[in-house]
Amino acid sequence: MAQQETDQRIDSGTLVAGTADGFADDTAGAAERELAHRERGTSRPITVVGNPVLHKECRDVTEFDDSLAALIDDMFASQHTAEGVGLAANQIGVDLKVFVYDCPDDDGKRHVGAICNPVLEELPPEKRHLDDSNEGCLSVPTAYAALPRPDYAVVRGQDAQGNPVKVRGTGYFARCLQHETDHLYGYLYIDRLSKRDRKDALKQMEEGTARYETVPNA
C-alpha cells in the first residue's frame, strides 16, 4: 500500500496491548526488525496494474524455508525503496500468498511483520465502522481515491516459519491489512471503486510519474 501523508509520530518501542489473547506482538523492536530484513534483501521493481500476476489469486505458501525468508527480505527492501507501508509478493512478480508491512496505526504505533496465507476475519456488525479515507497503491503509482473500509481488521495466517499468527489493526493499519490481503486474492483497491472513480485513478496514474522502478507491462 502506498504511504499516506501523516503528521503522526511513530513510536517503535510501544507494545501491542492484549497480546495475551493470541494476537501477534508486531510492535516490539519494529525498527530493528525492519532494518535487518531490508539490509539482507535486494530491492526489486514493482508490478503495476495490467500485469497478469496482480489480477489472479496467488498460490498458497507451502514451504517455509530459506527461499521464503529471502523473498520476505527482498519484499521489505522493495517496500522501503518505494516508500510504501505494505507490499504483497505479487507486487514484485511472485505468485505466492505472503505480504509484509511497516505501517503505523492511528495511535502512531509502528507495526512490522510478514503474513503468509492471510485470511480476513468477518467482523460482527458492531465492529463494522467504515472509514472512507483516501487509499493508494504502489501498483497504481501516483493515484489516490477515497475507499470505505472497516476501521478495524483481524487477519489470520502463518508467520515465516509456518506458525499460526493472528494480527489486528485499527485505522490506517486496518486499511493496510485489508489492502494487502486483497492483493493476494487478485484484487487491487481500484477494483472496489465505482467505474467513475476507477477511471479517475487510472488517469492520475497515467499523468503521474512513479518515484520508484516499475515493471513495464507487455
Automatic annotation (TrEMBL):
Entry keyword set: Hydrolase, Iron, Metal-binding, Protein biosynthesis
GO biological process: translation
SUPFAM superfamilies with a match to the protein in the record: Peptide deformylase (SSF56420)
UniProt key word Aminoacyl-tRNA synthetase: no
Reactions accelerated catalytically: N-terminal N-formyl-L-methionyl-[peptide] + H2O = N-terminal L-methionyl-[peptide] + formate
Active-site annotation: E180
Cofactor: how bound: Binds 1 Fe(2+) ion.
Reported cofactor(s): Fe(2+)
One Pfam family linked to the record: Pep_deformylase
InterPro entries in the record: Peptide_deformylase, Peptide_deformylase_sf
Enzyme Commission number(s): 3.5.1.88
UniProt-recorded Gene Ontology molecular function terms: metal ion binding; peptide deformylase activity
Binding site for Fe cation: C137, H179, H183
Family assignment from sequence similarity: Belongs to the polypeptide deformylase family.
Protein task: Removes the formyl group from the N-terminal Met of newly synthesized proteins. Requires at least a dipeptide for an efficient rate of reaction. N-terminal L-methionine is a prerequisite for activity but the enzyme has broad specificity at other positions.
Protein name in the entry: Peptide deformylase
Organism from which the protein derives: Streptomyces liangshanensis
Gene name as annotated: def
